[in-house]
Structure formats: C-alpha cells, structure tokens
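pasting for ref
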Amino acid sequence: MHRLDTIELFIKLLSFRSVTPDDDGALTFIRDYLGDFEAEWVNKVNVKNLFLHKKFGDGPHLCFAGHIDVVPPGDGWESDPFVPKFEKGHIYARGAQDMKSGVAAFVQACRDAEAFNGTLSLLLTSDEEGDAKHGTIEVLKYLKEKDFLPDYAIVAEPTCEERFGDAIKIGRRGSINGVIEKIGKQGHAAYPEKALNPIHKVAQVLPHIAGVDLDEGDAFFAPSKFVITDIRAGMEVTNVTPGKLKMMFNVRNNTKTDKAKIEAFVDRHFKDMNYILTLTQSAKPFMTDKDSKIVKTITSAIKDVTGVDTKYSTAGGTSDARFLAEYGVEVVEFGVRNDTIHAPNERTTPEEVEGLKRVFDDVIENF
C-alpha cells in the first residue's frame, strides 16, 4: 500500500465508524498499511485485537499501544462525526483526540522507521472504551505465553492540557467501587421508636466520610478521596421509614490506599451498625519511575520537538496502560490535548498530530 502523509492517514482512520467494539475494518487497513510488519490477530468474542512487530536488532522491545474504537457520537454535532471536517484550523470527528490522532502518529512513525536498536511493535484493540475485558489484556496474555512481552510501551492517549507537549502520564490512579447496605427496621413514621431508621443512622456518619481524603497523596498522586455517588432508601412515601439504605461510592486510589484500607475506614465509622460492604476494584494504580529510560527518552523528545518542558501527571481516569503496567512493562502515555474528548464536535489540529508523529520519530531514533 502506498504511503499516505500523516494527516491523510489520520483522516482515513477517522472515517471508520469504529464504535466499541466494532473496528469497522480499521485494523485490517492498518495491517495492510504496515505490510512489512509481522501481524497477529488475537480476537476474543466480538473484539478484534491486532499485534504487529518488526525486529530491527537485538536491543529492547518498544511497543506503541492504543485503541481504534471510539465512544458513540451522541447528539449536538454540527457535522457528521464520521466524515472529518476541517474548519478554522481544526479537524472535527469522533476520535479526533481520543485517540485516532495517537494511532495515526505512531502507525506513521513505525512505517517510516528505517532503523531501531531492537524490536518495534504496535498493540491495537477495539475494546478500550467499553468493558476492556477482551482487548489489550488478552493480547498481553498471549504475548506472555510467547515470552514476547515488550520492555517499554507508549500509549498514545491524549494527555496534554493547555498546549501540546505540556503533560505526559507516568502513572494512573486505580478505581475501587463500593456499596454499603445499612440494615434497619421498617416502620410507621408516626412511631419512630418502634423502627430503626437507617437514614438517621447513616446521616450521623456522613460528615466524617463524605469527600474525606484517605491518604495524603504524594508528589505525583492526588490523595485518594472517598466520593459518595448515590444514596437511596425507602418507597417514596412519607409515612413509612425504610428498612434498608444503600450507599454507593468510588475511590480513585493511589498507591498508598488499597481495598483493605478502605474496609478499615468503613468499619471504623459503621462498626456499631448492621451493615454489608461490597468492594470491587476495576483498575489498579501504577507508577513508572521518572528515571526510567522510557520517561527520559520521551521527555527529551517532547523538548526537542516542541521546546516545552513537560510535566509528569497521574490525573484522569483509567486507560489500557494499567494492563501493561500489571505485566511489568514500563509504560508512559503521551498524546494530543484532551479538551474535547467524548464531547460533541470533538476536534484537534493538524499541527498537533504532525507534532506527535515527530515526537515518536525522535523516540525511535534516540531510544
């Protein structure tokens, strides 16, 4: 397949209606575009995953990782979200920032790579914006079985805030979801002494738990905060006190707080009550050492290309970088600005996409 320029490639990728978990043929196109890379499919259920690699030498294995799937466009678009529109210096389409810009940049950088002291690979999934149960994690399981896990990885998620180059992510918080069921005794509102109202009981502890920091954080992580997301009880009538209250919460935890610490926190405030606690961890926190080769190399590349001194961040939600970290891969995230991700009229600029490609060129050249 003939070489496109970076923006032509970007426009092509934006044109695929790849709403999770349907890649709409985008992964096959990328496979064909990188014809001199060895391609392997790791498909699970209705999810397509593509792993491509090319060995240049005997040095380290560097992987570029990302997802081709996007969230549904939703309402409020001023144009077709899958017909890219260029207007006033911006390209509008679903996935423009999250994250077909990143995919276009590293696909082009890998195609243009003429030399590398090791192995270059690309890990692409169509299941990141959904449950992420059959995507990147399945490819990593496969690579571990083959003893072919990468040493280092760059996930090209959009990371920049005010200007291109101003932030990379060297870690991410985890996410722990919790449900507390406070058991009471239903009764008539006119005879509160004959009932046990769980709302009254929980109201007494709310000031001590709502929005409380569970640790002090550190130089890279914000404190882990106890965030209450839902409280419900009763039958929506005024003359019956409820027999049970259900409270839901979320903790975006750093490396200083885990499920055991949350259990102890809840028990400290609910120990004199009849309650049931359920905790599930949807993502674990991770941190790549700021002195890691991958962090230093991409920091230098960003400075070379943009002139910007980038900052190290762990903010935001979760990404597939967490799966790479679990397998011992030293991973960072870097991409374009993220101010319109998942929003109507998502957009980015050609200059940022081309700049991202140049950063990846620099990383490959100087790694």
